[in-house]
Amino acid sequence: MKRLSLDRVERSLHPVGRVFALPLISHRERQTLKAQIAASLEAAFSQYGFAEASVSQLKTACNVSLRTLYKHYPSKELMIVAALTHRHQRYLTFLADSSINYGKEAILAVFERLNHWMAEFAPHGCMSLQALAAFPDNLEIKAAVSQHKNDVRLLLAQRAQRPNLATALLLLHEGVSNVWPILGYASIESAKLSIQQMMEKNEHA
Question: What region holds the HTH tetR-type domain (predicted)?
Fold first, then answer.
């Protein structure tokens, strides 16, 4: 995706007298800018944490004015939701990126992908649960985290072709996400062993 010049966008949003410095940007450009801000917010919260990050730090990380940041996301909580939503979409695409589509080998491949994600993007654990821990009473954040976990649950069940194991697979996924910073790949190996045992038992039930 071609990145917009944020300087150009900034100047187009602010009038000089009664004349705009540049023509107003299109709806498509606004949506592109909004997506770019969400991606920058994800990176910023990953670096600074949710409770610790100040709006000033977020503004700088997004390379926009405070006015533009608030125009798209009017509160810090909504900035968090935007970051989580962007990360959620990236995560589902990342997990599903496998040449094996369905069955036991497919779900084992998903957990290998989970290991790569943890190593590269989440070495300190699940960002969604960290956001919920920082803002436990915020309904928008709680809804975003709930949607994320439910969609992961559905993806795991679809890949395994075992709807009856959806919750069990999610629990293994969540266990790995929480202990990976301590146990590393050992948590993946344990989860994969549990998956094989569950699926073999299910096949012979």
Answer: 31-91
